[in-house]
What does this fold into?
Amino acid sequence: MFSFRQPRIICTSKLNTSKQLLLIPHSKLSPFLIPAFCPYSTKLPPVRPYEPKRSSTTSSLPQTKPLPPQNGADTLNPPTSTLPPPLLLPTREPSQPRPAFYFRTGRAYLTFYKTGVKAIWSNYKLLEQIRPRIPSDKSLEQALRDGVLSRAEYHLVRRTRSDVSRIPLFGLILCICGEFTPLVVIFLSGAVPRTCHIPRQVERARAKAEARRKESFKEGTAVAEKEIENMEDVTRLPKPIARHVGTTLGLYSNLWDRIGVTPSILLPRRIRKAVERIDADDLAIWRDGGVNGLSEEEVKLAAEGRGLDVVGKPIKDIRSELAMWMEARMCKNVSVIDLLCRRPSAWPRA
It folds into this structure.
C-alpha cells in the first residue's frame, strides 16, 4: 500500500546564515502566513472578501432614508473631503540653500494638489451612491426642501459636480507646470477645484469680494426700503438692486465693473438661482441642526454665500451674524433680497 503524505513547502530562509531548508507541513501553515515564509511564492489563490447575501424582500425596497455621511451621522456638515486638505509647507533652515528649500516647497504644493484631486475621486464615489435618490424631475434645491437629501448630501453633490467640471483644465495646468502650479493658478481661481484651493488663494478671493461689496454699499441701491420689502419677483428687480445683489453674491466678474457695464441679460437668471439656493439652504440649516451645529469652515462658507464678511473676523462673530440671518429668515419671514440689501446692523431684530 502506498502512503500519501501531505505536500510540504520548501523555501530558503534569508534570515538564517547557514541557509538551512525550512520544511513546514502545508496543513499546519496558514495560507495567510505563506508569503511571510516564502516571499516569492505567487501560486496562492486570491482571497475573496466575504459578501453577505441580500434577501429578496429588502433588495427591492427603494432607498428613502438619506445615506449616513462619513463623519458619524452628520446631516448638516458635508464630508471634509469637499474642502481643501491642510497645506504643510517646509520651513527654511539657516544653513539650507535656497534652491533646495524652493524645491521642497514645490514638492509640498504638488503633494497638496494630488491630495485634492484624490479627494475629488472619493467624493465622486460618494456621489454615485446618492445619485439613485436624486429625482430627475426636480432640482437639487427642491430635493433638499422635500427632505430627499440632507444638507450634507446636497453640498456634497454641488461641490463634487463643480470640482469634476474643473478637472480637465486644472489637470492640464498641473501636468505642464508641475511644482510651479501655485504661481499660475492663483490668478485663475475659476479653473481650480475647491479641494485644490490654497489658503492664500482663498483669502485673496474673499478680500476682493468684500472690497467689491463695500463699494456697492457705498453707492447704494437708490430704492426706498418699502419697495425692497415688496419685491417678490427676483427676476424683475430694478437695475440698482440687481447690480447690488449680483455684486454682493459675486454673480458676475469684476471685469464688467471696470468697463462700467452691468450684465443685465445674465443677472436675472443668476439671481433667481442664487436666491433659490440660499432659501433652500436656510431651510436645511434650520431643519438639520441649526447654526451651532455647523463646523467653523462651514460657518465661513455659509456666511460667504450670503454676502457676509468673514476676513479678519472671529468665528464667534461670524456665527452670530449667521444666526441673526437665520432668525430673520425663519422667524420673521424676511426675504433674501431684503437682507442682501442691508448690513447686519440694519436687520430686523427681536
In short: Residues 105 and 145 are 45 Å apart (CA to CA). The radius of gyration is 28 Å. The longest helix spans residues 98-130. The chain has a mean pLDDT of 78.
